[in-house]
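User: Let's play a game. I give you a shape written as tokens, and you guess the letters that built it. Ready? Here's round one.
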């Protein structure tokens, strides 16, 4: 028996759906990531991104849509299902998808949303492909454009990013690898090789975390990444060396939920996301831990600390439900 007792209930599914429906098509406030190339070049979010203009920023809109599509698959009878389907039909048109694809080709946007938004876009496409051929097929050129960018970037990326924020490379590899297994086997192999190159020699992680605005655990996310991308026996050897004191609940910082002092602050509220993503990590790593290991209960404590706070202030509300759903989904093998 595992300690993963919390699960996606019908009530939570409806709550998540209502939250996402309230922001994926909400244009303002908006934090654009756009390079102005000449004087007088000013555009609003919807003009630049006819699909992913909502949710405060591009990547949050992408994973807000992933949340809605995932809920529609898992709970097709939820009360919000008709509203989700209606919004999908109005939003994911060929012309709008082409405009999002064209934006990626702007020379000044080479690093646009790299790697966090890229990984979420691939995750969105993988979910769309599970639903029906039309939406999956329409989004595939956009996903393949992102995959091409991963190929080009990783060919010259000598070092990983070990932050607790959007630049974290381990988080991106987890999501992008899941897509590549199904759609690009060469890229999947490239991801595994890159993970070995970046993280294979890491030992005795100190887990000096959390940072004051982190929404990812660099330590647990790296371990989760290696669990996903390496063969099980290879990972088991690496994991023992990476966290050699885990059976003694050390480093202790990984076992205690972060305290969130101000949920109206867009950076401090990241710590609610940290608690949710740690819960996701602990659940994924649980299959490698003994049944009585403290990591199981640590994951549940992190989830319980953050789940009541996914709505309320828009600084957290525009993205936290996606991370809550990640934590509540069954752990991938």
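Assistant: Ready! My guess for every position:
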């Amino acid at each position: 028996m595992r300690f993963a007792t919390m699960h996606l209930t019908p009530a939570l599914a409806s709550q998540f759906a209502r939250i996402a429906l309230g922001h994926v098509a909400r244009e303002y406030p908006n934090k654009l990531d756009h390079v102005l190339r000449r004087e007088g070049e000013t555009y609003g979010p919807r003009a630049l991104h006819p699909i992913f203009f909502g949710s405060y920023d591009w990547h949050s809109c992408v994973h807000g849509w992933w949340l809605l599509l995932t809920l529609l698959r898992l709970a097709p009878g939820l009360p919000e299902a008709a509203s989700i389907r209606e919004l999908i039909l109005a939003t994911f048109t060929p012309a709008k998808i082409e405009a999002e694809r064209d934006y990626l080709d702007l020379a000044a946007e080479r690093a646009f949303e790299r790697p966090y938004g890229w990984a979420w876009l691939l995750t969105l496409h993988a979910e769309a492909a599970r639903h029906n051929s039309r939406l999956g097929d329409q989004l595939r050129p956009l996903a393949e454009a992102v995959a091409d960018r991963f190929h080009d970037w990783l060919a010259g990326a000598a070092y990983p990013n070990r932050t607790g924020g959007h630049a974290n490379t381990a988080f991106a590899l987890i999501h992008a690898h899941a897509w590549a297994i199904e759609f690009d086997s060469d890229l999947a192999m490239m991801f595994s090789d890159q993970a070995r190159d970046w993280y294979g020699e890491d030992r005795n992680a100190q887990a000096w975390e959390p940072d004051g605005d982190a929404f990812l655990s660099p330590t647990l996310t790296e371990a989760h990444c290696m669990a996903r991308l390496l063969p099980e026996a290879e990972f088991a050897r690496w994991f023992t060396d990476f966290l050699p004191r885990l059976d003694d609940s050390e480093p202790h910082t990984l076992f205690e939920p972060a305290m969130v002092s101000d949920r109206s602050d867009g950076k401090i509220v990241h710590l609610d996301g940290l608690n949710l993503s740690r819960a996701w990590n602990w659940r994924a790593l649980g299959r490698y831990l003994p049944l009585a290991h403290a990591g199981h209960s640590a994951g549940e404590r992190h989830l319980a600390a953050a789940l009541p706070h996914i709505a309320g202030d828009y600084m957290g509300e525009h993205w936290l439900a996606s991370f809550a759903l990640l934590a509540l989904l069954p752990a991938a093998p």
